[in-house]
Amino acid sequence: MAVLKRRPDAVPWAGGTLIQTSSDDRNAGRQVSVLDLGGIPELTTVNRSDRYLELGACVTLATILGLPKNLALEPLREAAGLIGTATVRNLATLGGNIAARDSFMTCFSALACMDAAIELRDAGGARWLGIHTLIDGDNKPQFPAATLLTRIRIPTAPWDATALHRLGQVHRGECYASTFAATARFEKETISELRLVAAGRHLVRDRSLELTLIGKRLPLSAREIESAQATAHERARENGFDDRTAVHFGQYVAAFLASVQEESR
Ligand SMILES: Cc1cc2nc3c(=O)[nH]c(=O)nc-3n(C[C@H](O)[C@H](O)[C@H](O)COP(=O)(O)OP(=O)(O)OC[C@H]3O[C@@H](n4cnc5c(N)ncnc54)[C@H](O)[C@@H]3O)c2cc1C
What we know:
Blueprint: H1 2-6, E1 11-13, E2 34-36, E3 46-48, E4 52-56, H2 61-65, H3 76-82, H4 86-91, H5 94-98, H6 106-113, E5 117-122, E6 125-130, E7 148-155, E8 161-166, E9 179-187, E10 190-199, E11 203-204, H7 207-213, H8 222-238, H9 243-264
Parallel strand pairs: 1-2
Antiparallel strand pairs: 3-4, 4-7, 5-6, 5-7, 8-9, 9-10, 10-11
Helix pairs in contact: 3-6, 8-9
The protein binds flavin-adenine dinucleotide (FAD).
Flavin-adenine dinucleotide (FAD) binds at residues 11-19, 21, 37, 57, 61, 82-84, 88, 91-93, 95-97, 99-101, 105-106, 148-149, 176.
């Protein structure tokens, strides 16, 4: 933090796997100072309580994949498994995935569906915030300047259904494909909790669509699923997704809602 106070423009370097593979327009052609986060033991700790899993920002994706299988970590585990190769995942950190400046990376949609909280630290001290505070008013990423992400806290109450998929191909202006993530809980054959998220250059989460479906008795009717698909498609279009990706989002929402009926039995 002392270094960051002196050099607020220094670029935090965790695994370096995104910094080295994305073309960051803001720093194009400019020399930047790098703040190496490697070797800070506090940033690599994994702590578990009855209700939460707390991961240091520099915990690698490989470490996440190696956590006990009985921990309710879907859809994050699936997201981590989709990224790069085993060599990349040994270097790539969860913090670097969340703190990406230009796009919401693969783990972000999963964590948004899991109600994750993040600890940010700057010259003024440390504070815990919901992960949604990293989304600006235009649904794009906003990571505060001269700030470090230090810990990620994930509630471990199990979900009854989860999903995570890539939303089609990589499109213009993107480094990696957008992601669809979903989580749901059921109570007495009704949907009691639901999160449906698409994330890439923008993040789409339509709370009014979720609220329409929460409280509905399962199985949902074909009409309810079709209407949810159309709304999700529309919302993704409005939020800057190209039509092909928006169509995929609608289809994944429909597929998740259809599969939810099986899971709830
Ligand atoms: C072959 C290959 C395939 C890949 N496929 C995917 C993919 O499918 N999906 C995907 O999401 N990513 C992919 N990546 C990119 C990358 O591996 C991941 O996004 C990774 O999680 C980034 O973590 P990192 O530690 O390497 O981040 P870094 O590259 O070190 O940093 C990424 C950004 O976060 C900032 N940052 C890092 N840590 C902190 C912190 N603690 N506090 C504040 N800011 C911080 C950095 O300044 C930088 O802006 C791929 C990379 C490669 C090489």
